Amino acid sequence: MRVILFVGFLGSGKTSLMLPLARFLVERREAVDGRMPVVIIENEVGDVSIDDAVLRQEGLSVRELFGGCICCQLTADLTSCINDIHAEIDPHWVLVEATGLGTPQPIVSTIDRYGKGVERVTTLAVIDAVRWNELIVVVEPLVTKQVTGADVVAVNKTDLVDADTLEEVTRGVAALNGRAKVVRLSAGEGVGPEVWEKVIGP
Ligand SMILES: Nc1nc2c(ncn2[C@@H]2O[C@H](COP(=O)(O)OP(=O)(O)OP(=O)(O)O)[C@@H](O)[C@H]2O)c(=O)[nH]1
Ligand SMILES: [Mg+2]
């Protein structure tokens, strides 16, 4: 199983990006071997509803871990959730949405240390391009941890900002994490397959 961990401040667009990525992964699977391709773990109730019964018809399943944050109180629940998914379904992909206040490093350590059947964890930090300048000041330690812990940074909501702002956000992200791949996209306008390929990597 490969895990993609979505982090990003409240309302940045994690859920809005996760469903299209899940659908892309379902369609892309090379070998149809009967395994469910994608399981989603949601760490809180968001604006965008994710209905397990509806998604099952598309080859997706959703597990929910509510009542705390998977980077602090719920690390044991996350471990058992991943291990159950491995034992019961063993999908190709597990997409995990952290809460808006979650930081990646403790979650990745938990999965690396205790997650059974996990080949690799890729951390995707979702940035709201509209609010970057505000959030990097107001919640600087959190946003910094989310960006520095990311393998890929998705600068989202490009439909709502001008080119100069987008440049500024991209520079700000690169200054914090020069190692991460940075993609600019809009969940609102839709994300093309070439961008998703870049996000998931080889
Ligand atoms: N215009 C526009 N709106 C977007 C885009 N991406 C997300 N939104 C909107 O932003 C709001 C928050 O999106 P979500 O996907 O729920 O964000 P989230 O990061 O999952 O939020 P939490 O789980 O609550 O932290 C929703 O109203 C989305 O419709 C985008 O690219 N463009
Ligand atoms: Mg969400």
Written account of the structure:
With 202 residues, the chain is an alpha/beta fold. The chain has a single domain (2-200), classed as Rossmann fold. 41% of the residues lie in helices and 19% in strands. The protein contains 8 helices and 7 strands. It has helices spanning 14-28, 52-56, 75-88, 104-114, 132-138, 140-148, 163-176, 193-200, and strands spanning 2-7, 38-42, 60-64, 93-97, 120-128, 152-156, 181-184. The chain has a 7-stranded parallel sheet with strand order 3-2-4-1-5-6-7, with helices on both faces. The radius of gyration is 16 Å and the shape is globular. 40% of the residues are buried.
Largest sheet: 7 strands, parallel
- CATH C-level category: Alpha Beta
Oligomer: single chain
CATH superfamily: P-loop containing nucleotide triphosphate hydrolases
Bound molecules: guanosine-5'-triphosphate, magnesium ion
Q: Identify the overall geometry.
A: globular
Physical arrangement of strands within the biggest beta sheet: 3-2-4-1-5-6-7
Number of discrete helical segments: 8
> What would you call the structural class?
alpha/beta
In N-to-C order, the SSE pattern is EHEHEHEHEHHEHEH
Q: Gap between N and C termini, in Å?
A: 14 Å
Strand content: 15-25%
Mean pLDDT: 91
